[in-house]
Design goal:
The complex is a heterotetramer, with two copies of chain A (109 residues) and two copies of chain B (314 residues). Chain A is built from one helix and seven strands; from the N terminus they run E-E-H-E-E-E-E-E. Chain A is mostly beta strands. A five-stranded mixed beta sheet of chain A has the order 2-1-7-5-6, with no helix packed on it. Chain A has a two-stranded antiparallel sheet with strand order 3-4. In chain A, strand 5 and strand 6 form a beta hairpin. The longest helix of chain A is centred in the middle third of the chain and has 12 residues. Chain A starts with 7 loop residues before the first strand and ends in a 5-residue tail after the last strand. In chain A, 32% of the residues are buried. By secondary structure, chain B is of the alpha/beta class. Helix content of chain B is 32%, strand content 14%. In chain B, helix 3 links the parallel strand 1 and strand 2. The relative contact order of chain B is 0.16. Classes of the chains: A mainly beta (109), B alpha/beta (314). Chains B and C meet through helix 1, helix 3, helix 8, helix 9 and strand 8 of B and helix 1, helix 3, helix 8, helix 9 and strand 8 of C. Bound molecules: zinc ion (2 copies). The site of one zinc ion has 9 residues of chain B, from helix 7.
Chain lengths: 109, 314, 314, 109
């Protein structure tokens, strides 16, 4: 409602499919990240992923989350319950209270 | 044939009466089920409940693919098997049970894992495929074969306390037709690193978690068949002449992924997936995967997925 | 006993290994399952899959209540039975199958429908109850008995292409304790008019729809037991000394209803339910339902629900 | 966002558990009802139920939906995924785009 001049943007981030093991074994995280990049552009999902690597991941095996500057193969990124490829992938500009889910595909049966 | 006055036997009317009276099935849907040939690849935690409900519902022919034998550690979740069938092939153990549940169904055992050399030949005889396997190598192989052959694919997986379900290649249009449903490679163009792949043996699995996913696979398959998305009875039999009837088979919902997490609240989440990928190696106009390349083994699914052990992981 | 160095047998470690290694179960959870006595009321479309996964998971004792015999029209969804057991009691048919799946489980047959005269006596021997019946009369009876006896109740239902699931009376506090979970009467204080009650025989049912709900009942029951919400192994055995351990059994999520609709998108919806009702006839401080009034038949569940046929509908 | 002076309030109404059979066998309905009662008070869920009986129900058996001026026993009313008893029951004041679901309990098994 209030388009605040806040310097940060509140987000709901969730990890499932085993990815939560990299993040203190906690699935749901309420976080706030800077709303702008250093160059003044609004933060996007790519910036969120960098922020998670710098601030939230607890496991040293970061390559289980990020490889070659994007999420590793086998992880789906969901923006408000849609595959991020429907929303612009890492270029999607974050909105307050967006729900971003990182899902590692399962293979068991 | 469906032109007779009484297209089902008295026994069939009695056995299937509770689903026949549903508008979503009806006599037409039951006849489609009866004429359908369905392949369940993997007779483990997913394949057991999926096969039970498909046989219960009266699919005409059910094929079962698995090269493993029953172990005691399977039995908490692989409910078609029993203590008496430990050591017996999973396919034969399942046939025992399924034949007892409904002897009207024609059961076809395939007592070996699917390989690039056998996948196309086996799958080509069926109208719909359930991926109930437990490794990415088999998931890419089955998806590629289903795209090449124009078969709908109901794919599920489970690990620990979570499960995932996707209906792929529905509608099952030829490669290059953007109106077809996405394939496994559209969603996951690159395989996961080998060290990220955890099996149920390593990671553990809660029985009802994989059970729910398997039952949902049976449900999605019944929906696809009963609605006429693939209709052997009405078509000339050619793979790509599958079609839906406007008034009976509504266009399938946009592709989605169902996520299940037994200890989360809410436990189920539905997610919209992308359509076919314009540069998909399997289902796009630029597809590089062909029947010849798949069968010849040149695709090397094992190396693709970074696995060093032999492909005996279905 | 849990004090031994190897509290499970080698066979049990092998059989349950895939769930034992889950942190949500663990050795403690497996021992709780082993010492638990679970009652499945109704061995139909819900009770069959629920019983299979409970027996697979290794609950120590499973009771089965049903007075019906197997009919061919059951078999599309009641997957424990088989063509060979048509005409046999459902409880005996189920015991045959379940014993084959896991002979370590103690199976107790109750070969008649639950009645106000028998409900308390039967349920009092168990630690948790699954309502797998198919009529409101039995649903109110089972809920009232579970409240009086302090038993958690996992209740599900299904019809046509839809299903519903609720965990009731969890935590199972005595009547008047507002911190207990709501009961069936808290959610539905008045019974539905008789003409609105449709059975699966009349309305039809898709097999995997009721199957999913039954598997989910097994899952919720396993979660309740493994987490220590009811813990026979740790308690003195008195009903109301059930307890959770703060570090192992997180307070149960606020009460919820899971709705499933096979042809809707999304198919699952979770809904928050109310807590206990301050004037509930069963679980409140003003409760009017007592062991004596229930057993004496003075409550007249049949008339309450406006049904004129005898109470043989479980 | 815009607190419009609109005379009507848009709602998403859904019927499940067999109730859809009373409403043209259609589960999901996008409707708009008057935002105020004749006395000027904001419309509440009770008013919505009356509106549905007057305007949307197609089956003559209205007593399968409403009895004694409320929904019949065996129907749960959900307001934005919560039992309406958590939200004030029929006195809950409707907000634009509220999602109201009417669920008939199932008894089969
Ligand atoms: Zn593709
Ligand atoms: Zn109550």
């Amino acid at each position: 409602m209030t388009e605040a001049k806040a310097a940060s943007i509140p987000l709901a981030v969730e990890f499932t499919g085993g990815l939560e093991l990299l993040f203190s074994n906690q699935r749901k995280h309420k976080i706030a990240i800077p709303s702008k990049k250093p160059d003044g552009e609004p933060s996007n999902v790519g910036d969120l992923i960098s922020w998670l690597c710098d601030n939230l991941i607890k496991d040293p095996r970061k390559e289980m989350f990020v490889l070659d500057d994007s999420v590793r193969p086998g992880i789906l990124v969901l923006i408000n319950d849609a595959d991020w490829e429907l929303e612009g992938e890492d270029k999607y500009e974050l909105q307050p209270n967006d729900e971003i889910v990182f899902v590692s595909t399962l293979h068991g049966g | 044939s469906s032109k007779d006055k009484w297209p089902l036997s008295t026994e069939e009317y009695r056995r299937y009466g509770r689903q026949l009276i549903l508008p979503e099935v009806g006599l037409q849907g039951q006849l489609r089920l009866k004429s359908a040939k369905v392949l369940v690849v993997g007779v483990g935690g997913l394949g057991c409940p999926a096969a039970a409900y498909l046989v219960g519902a009266g699919v005409g022919t059910l094929g079962l693919v698995d090269g493993d034998t029953v172990e005691v550690s399977n039995l908490h979740r692989q409910i078609l098997h029993s203590t008496n069938t430990i050591g017996i092939g999973k396919v034969d153990s399942a046939v025992d049970y399924l034949n007892g549940l409904n002897s009207l169904v024609n059961l076809i055992p395939h007592r070996a894992h699917l390989t690039p050399q056998t996948a196309l030949e086996i799958i080509s005889s069926y109208d719909a495929v359930l991926d109930c396997t437990d490794h990415p190598t088999s998931r890419y192989l089955i998806s590629d074969a289903c795209v090449l052959l124009g078969k709908p694919l109901v794919s599920a997986s489970a690990l620990r306390t979570e499960g995932q379900l996707m209906v792929l290649n529905v509608p099952p249009k030829p490669p290059g037709d953007a109106s077809g449903g996405p394939c496994y490679r559209c969603i996951f163009p690159k395989p996961p690193p080998a060290e990220s792949v955890v099996s149920c043996g390593e990671g553990g699995i809660l029985g009802p978690v994989v059970g729910v996913m398997g039952v949902l696979q049976a449900l999605e398959t019944i929906k696809i068949i009963a609605s006429g998305t693939v209709d052997r009875a009405d078509s000339t039999g050619k793979s790509f002449e599958t079609h839906g009837k406007a008034n009976e088979a509504p266009a399938p919902a946009s592709p989605s992924l169902l996520l299940f997490s037994a200890f989360s609240s809410p436990p189920f989440r539905s997610v919209r997936l992308r359509p076919r990928r314009a540069n998909c190696a399997s289902c796009s106009a630029q597809a590089t995967i062909t029947e010849a390349s798949l069968t010849s083994g040149s695709l090397d699914y094992v190396a693709f997925c970074g696995v060093t052990s032999p492909l005996d992981t279905l």
